[in-house]
Amino acid sequence: MNQETEASLQSSKIIEEIYPLFKKFGDLLRERGYNSASSGNISTKRGSKMYITRRGSMKGALELSDIIETSLDNVDTGIVLASTETYIHRNILLQTPALATMHCHPPNTVALSMYYTEVLCQDNIIPIDVEGHYILKNIPIITLEKPTGSKEMEEKIPEALKNYNIMILRGHGVFARGTNLEEAYNWITVCEEAAIIIFKCLQLGMDIKSLQGQYSRW
Amino acid sequence: MMDSMNGWHGQLYRVDLSGHSFKREDIPHYVLERYLGGRGLGAKYLKDEVHPSTDPFDKGNKIIYATGPITGTSIPTSGRFSVTSKSPLTGTIFDCNAGGTFGPALKSCGIDAVILEGKAPEPLFLKITPDAVEFHDAVDAWGKTIPGTTRYLKEHHGKKVKVSCIGPAGENRVMFANIMNDYHHALGRGGLGAIMGSKQLKAIMVDAGERDQRKQAGVADPDMLKVVIKEINKRINASPVTGKGMRLFGTAQLVNLINSMGLFPIRNFQSATDPRADNLSGETIREEIMVSKTACYACSIACGRMTRTSTGREGKGPEYESDWALGADCGIFDLEAVTEANYDCNEMGLDTISCGATIACAMELNQDGRLPDEWSEIRFGNANALQEAIHKIVSKTGIGADLAMGSRRLASKFGAPGVAMQVKGLEIPAYDPRGAFGMALAYATSNRGACHLRAYTVGAELLGLPKMFNRFSFSDKPDLVVTLQNMNAFFDSLVACKFTGMGVPDDYYARALSAVLGSEVSVTDAEIIGERVYNLERHYNAMIGFTREDDTLPPRFSEPLVEGPSAGKIPPLALMLDMYYGIRNWDVHGIPTTEKLKELGISAGEI
Prior knowledge:
Chain A is of the alpha+beta class. Chain A has helices at residues 3-31, 78-81, 86-95, 107-118, 130-135, 151-160, 181-203, and strands at residues 41-46, 49-53, 67-71, 100-104, 124-125, 139-142, 166-169, 173-178. Chain A contains 7 helices and 8 strands. In chain A, strands 3-2-1-4-8-7-6-5 form an 8-stranded mixed β-sheet, with helices on both faces. In chain A, a hairpin with a 3-residue loop joins strand 7 and strand 8. In chain A, helix 3 packs parallel to helix 6 (151-160). Chain A is elongated and about 70 Å long. The N and C termini of chain A lie far apart (53 Å). By secondary structure, chain B is an alpha+beta fold. The radius of gyration of chain B is 22 Å and the shape is globular. The model of chain B has no long low-confidence stretch (mean pLDDT 97). The chains are: A alpha+beta (218), B alpha+beta (607). The A-B interface holds A 10, 13-14, 17-18, 44-48, 95-97, 99, 134, 137, 162-163, 165, 178-180, 182-183, 186, 214, 217-218 and B 224, 227, 231, 234, 238, 460, 466-470, 473-476, 478-480, 483, 487, 506-507, 510-511, 520, 522-525, 527, 575, 578-580, 582-583.
């Protein structure tokens, strides 16, 4: 068997292992209403390759051909088909301990990111519920001039994830990293639930700043 | 990244055993920044000072005791220290770390490390204090057991001294002799005790003086450290593994779990599950022999078990690995016999894993008719033979002389090298790699030979920590193994206990270190520190001559198990290895490239 055939077989075997996971978490993101038809993206690292959802693919109805293989450290034509946010994912996978990343638009979190930065003048959300405190403690929000498909995103988002498992891009969505997709997905769900609790407490007229505890320096 | 000396003293003692002299020496700040302490610091000094061709028993080999930047703080499990040398069992660079109270005492002497050089002309004790290193005659104590030596030193030098010593096994240079401290804590693997024996160094005791005389390294941000410690303890308490299982059943909580999943090695890995395993389980230990729990310095997990057998003998353990090696691996499911054998190993200063696994190897050689008559008692399931074999190993008499070499040399001598369940000469611990593909790669690529602690994928593959991985998938394991190897090298350099990883996310310890040092060390920085340590060790091994051929598994694991939940599975090692080298940026021979070494700031030696 020549090297090319061997590499292609290896890729097929890897995609065979990955596809059920991408499908599962794509479906879950859809069920929770964290994405529109084709927003968001999912990626994972396997050796020197990255596997990422195809640009424009429907995350809630992923097919095998929606998984694109592209190199982590070289330019290849996989990039043409891959998500528009491929370079962000690539940098997260290269610059942090992440082995998997996920991006989506959980609505309560996105809305709160604007409220916190503009009304509370705070560039982080500190959950006030017990699980949010326990698991996330402090979620950084970054505000960018061009919050879609920009070079700035490729630099700032991985930087924010060097010491946090999840971050919020103001008015856009979240990026989470994990040792696998399940872990990244978990951070997203905890974050969105924490956002929902904050909303409800705001509706009740509570002073959420007083409930933030000691995690501002976390 | 770091710009203060909080966390460290910045000094070490360099001790010349041949000439009975010592000097206090500065440790360059950049070395501490890059390698932290413990395993990292040990690897750095060993690589710089011990030529790769040095015979482990030559006086040119060195032993490096090192603490880390969190040692002696109140950070949970921060009471550990490590020892690094070149192993006689594997021929590789080798480090071990241990808990107890010795590590914090050593650091309270105002030093971060001790480098032991040369070879004492007569048996010797060292006494380390904040002001000096004293040399004491150990002729009268030569031959004493671990508890005997410890008691002797406490009687002669005061109850407060902390003792790290070897037993008769180390004196006799058994290839898997260990170093023990605080009576019960082991620097278990790789034969470090034999190196100490070769240097005629019986023990190191530490007397840090009265409380007000002890020297503490600074903590830059005590308020933040309190917050992090509180969160670490919350996690330890909330995790079912660290907060419940470990406390109730000790490390042997794993026996029934691993057995039920079909990767609990039985009779030298000939099968991987047995209904009698429960006889050795944490539950049975708790019901039948446990006297009390015990914990290391600053640890709330308290995984240690003090036990007593029906003969009235008391001691610590058995731990999961010892329980398995001296028990199931030898086909023995008699808890009392295993416990007594475990006591013997601890008292004589033997690594329980290599000891049990080497005996199991001999049992299979005997089963296959490869051994002469004098080995007739070394049969699977023969609990009566266990203690006698251990005593012969310690004294290297009769069959003990062959057993004392370890399984690789033993099996080769009798013409069946494949019967030795080892990698790079180190005996494989208690997880059959056919039941967890990540462990297959972790064993094969470990820098110190088959070790479960370099990358404990069992957490991810079997316990769902932090989240469950499919244990029979291959494509996700190379990345997982690399990440775990790097993070564990960071933990070993702090020095913290890896059991915390079963409850506490990695970034908590990076935050704790940040609070101690007063400058941010992100979890990403932590992984890079670990990666640097891992590559330095690998580079040193490459200078010795280790290559891809050594990153392998015994041929047994190319055949599937025939029964149990792991039946029919074979880890695709070659495939995973190619991916692993690619991630590491090592060449096809498994050697770190010049670019990788440069990127990590490692000066390249000659290969």
